[in-house]
Amino acid sequence: MNTVETAQERKAPGRPRNAQADEAILDAVLEMLSSGQSVAAISIEAVAAKAGVGKATIYRRWPNKEALIIDAVAAMKGALPTPAGESVRDDLVMLVKANRSGRAQKYGKATVCLLPEFLKDEQLHHMYQAVIEPRRDVMRSVLRRGVQSGELRPDLDIELTLLMIQGPGMMQHMLNWNPNIADDGFAETLIDAILRGAAA
């Protein structure tokens, strides 16, 4: 599977989309995942009941449950962030913070519940990758720009550095392994630690 359409990219047939219904449906899915329900346990009927809409409203927007869940994940991640392009450090801090804001902060447990599902279901995993990779590409571009501008080491391993940034962020957000690091200073602390080895 090369590409996956999100709800924003699909054209809904019939009547115009209702933004409030969309929000209610996506939030219902994220709330169910955050409460520990597996993908298998979630049904379109249950989502419709929780969102206060009819099943037909959901099926007009999403062809199946898997597409709905992936769109809920995309909504949780939010819009693709745009780095300012002036400072590699500032851009990396902004990108880490972007992964921990809005719905991502409210429904953080949803990711924990989904990880086993992605490992078991190859199709779901590919759909998730289609949501995540554009965000990873933004961070890659910042790191490459830093190498070109001389802010970062010329021999920097881009993929390893990307992993070093995203891994701790995910673990801290999901498991809070270091309770001494406050949320409002985590991004700066993480990026400064990595730049001590990655900076030129």
Automatic annotation (TrEMBL):
Residues 19-80 form the HTH tetR-type domain. Keywords: DNA-binding, Transcription, Transcription regulation. One of its GO terms (molecular function) is transcription cis-regulatory region binding. Pfam families: TetR_C_11 (PF16859), TetR_N (PF00440). SUPFAM superfamilies: Homeodomain-like, Tetracyclin repressor-like, C-terminal domain. Residues 43-62 bind DNA. It comes from the Bacteria. PANTHER family: HTH-TYPE TRANSCRIPTIONAL REGULATOR RUTR, TETR-FAMILY TRANSCRIPTIONAL REGULATOR. This is TetR family transcriptional regulator. The lineage of its organism: Bacteria, Bacillati, Actinomycetota, Actinomycetes, Micromonosporales.
